[in-house]
Amino acid sequence: MIDFSTPLQSMQTAMDRVSMAGSRIARAAQANSGDGLELSPAVIARIEARNAVAANMTVAKTVDEMARTRIDVLG
Question: What counts of helices (H) and strands (E) characterise the chain?
């Protein structure tokens, strides 16, 4: 049996990181500090989290393709 739990859990963790980074960006914008240095780490964290989501989606798709190939081979 193919286990999707690892990429799915990792994807959920990354999506939570995207949400937290977005909240930090919104709070920084509301504070109207105008200091790009305060905003930069949150933007970087959001980009990293978005990339992690995409990577885990690729892993899940690959696992799915492998499972389909296995089913086709076993017929």
Answer: 2, 0
Per-residue buried b or exposed e for 20-31, using 16+ beta carbons within 10 Å of the residue's own CB? ebbebbeebeee
List pLDDT tens digits, range 6-45. 888 888 999 999 999 888 888 877 776 555 556 788 889 9
Residue with tokens 């949400």: 19
Residue 60 backbone phi and psi in degrees, to 5: -60, -40
Please give the DSSP secondary-structure letter assigned to residue 57: H
Q: Where are the domains of the chain?
A: 5-74
CA distances to 22, 23, 41, 45 from 37, in Å: 16, 16, 8, 13
